[in-house]
Amino acid sequence: MEAVKRWMSDWRYPTTLLCIYGFFSTVKPLEPFVIAYLTGPDKNLTTEQVNNQIFPVWTYSYLSVLVPVFLLTDWLRYKPVVVFQCVMLFITSAMLRWVTGVPAMQAMQFFYGMVTASDVAYFSYIYSVVDLKQYRKATSYSRSVQLLGYTVGSVLGQLLVSFKLMSYNNMMVFTLVLTAIALVTSFFLPMPKQSMFFHRKHAATKGTGTDVDGTVDGTGHTSNSNISVEEMRDDDVEKRGETEKTNKKEPHEKGPEVQDFVETSGTDSCTKVLVQLWRDFRQCYSSKQLLYWSVWWAMATCGYNQIINYIQVLWEHVQPSQDFSIYNGGVEAVSFLMSAATAYGIGFTEVRWEHWGELALGGFSGLGAAALFLITFTGSIWVCYAGYVIFKCLYMLLITIAMYQIAADLSMERYALVFGANNFGALVLQSIITAIVVDSRGLGLTIIPQFIIYASYFSVIAVVFLLRGLFTIWTAKKHKKENSPDKNVSPGFEEHRF
């Protein structure tokens, strides 16, 4: 019993539960075949209805609930939103199985928008219950197991379809069982005691009657977020600390006494929290380099989401037969595995991304645009599959680099804020493109013109960041030349330096 208690108090316990939840909530055997399911005899919808009337609802729903869900995630301390996400996923799967018609499918997409918006709780929860030194491992495990779940779901779906072991309707029932396992697991997740903004702790020094203007994050680590906004206050804090040291009565005490942490969860007004959010937001995006990487993140993620949403419609157009989707599961599995390998390989590259990164963003975005043009105009489903895998790997490569570079300039407390802001920007762009290009109330374009626009969109991204990358390299070389030692050191001195 004692061993069980020790294990439950260790960081591995919540990480293991979150990984179990992440795995079973992402195993979706039907996902690679959802277009075939919706346009087949089970739902009897047309491709135009799915493309122009049903799928756009997800984009609008995701955008409309992202900010409220982000704030609720912090206010409710993560776990309730994780449970809510699984409940919404269960409802979405049940509706996909048992309801029919365009309005019902649009409602299903609305609920699925809530599911994807709640991902912020899944990725933020772990930082509130584990120690800072375990962040890297916990993040790696929770993200990797999600990718594993998608891969297993794709492979499983491919096997079930290829060997005709299950109908599409039975695959949905199977998905509901897996989702139920994830839901039960979510109830056992430990409840965090703090969060980033609504449930934080202020540090107060004993015996002095003054509060140190800092906060403690969900794991108990002090974070002087207010001080970081107003840098001039650092000197005042240091001086105050020195004064406290000299005023101690006991000569053997060498520093201030241990701090107490007073939680200010429910008493903090919403206005105060929003002000703090805005201050942190301005502080984060004050870095021009971080701003450029974030702009690429928002633009590229917008285009990537559009490709993922409508790629099966393109595959159906390229091979318009009843068995057009027979290999979709295998292709998705390959794309997930190769994307994981590509992203994992970034950790072993010795490249100065702050110097070459923008050029890489432009160059690889250009290759992605070329892959999109290829899959748009090809008549071969195999070429279309290959181009999709290439495009997905390139995006995963670049988004991994972008996340790393942005994280390098941030404290851990602000990751969710910046990543959430970048995703919100991507959703705004995506909603605009969807409303104009895809929605039946807009242009309502067919799939080929849509993909021509998406490929052109990535071409624009490539040109912009190639020019920006070349300018960055030219500026760095110019700066290096201006500060060259040859201009400041007399001839012959360099020859004797070691």
From TrEMBL:
Region (Disordered): 209-262
SUPFAM superfamilies assigned: MFS general substrate transporter
Transmembrane domains' residue ranges: 53-73, 80-98, 110-127, 147-165, 171-191, 290-312, 324-347, 359-379, 385-404, 416-438, 450-471
Compositionally biased spans, kind Low complexity: 209-220
Basic and acidic residues bias spans: 236-257
Example of a GO cellular component annotation carried by this entry: plasma membrane
Membrane topology note: Multi-pass membrane protein
Compartment(s) where it occurs, according to its Swiss-Prot or TrEMBL record: Membrane
InterPro entries tied to this protein: Folate_carrier, MFS_trans_sf
Signal peptide residues on this chain, from the entry's feature table: none
A GO molecular-function descriptor: vitamin transmembrane transporter activity
Family statement drawn from the similarity comment of this UniProt entry: Belongs to the reduced folate carrier (RFC) transporter (TC 2.A.48) family.
PANTHER family: FOLATE TRANSPORTER, THIAMINE TRANSPORTER 2
Name of the protein described by the UniProt record: Thiamine transporter 2
Source organism: Channa striata (Snakehead murrel)
Source organism phylogeny: Eukaryota, Metazoa, Chordata, Craniata, Vertebrata
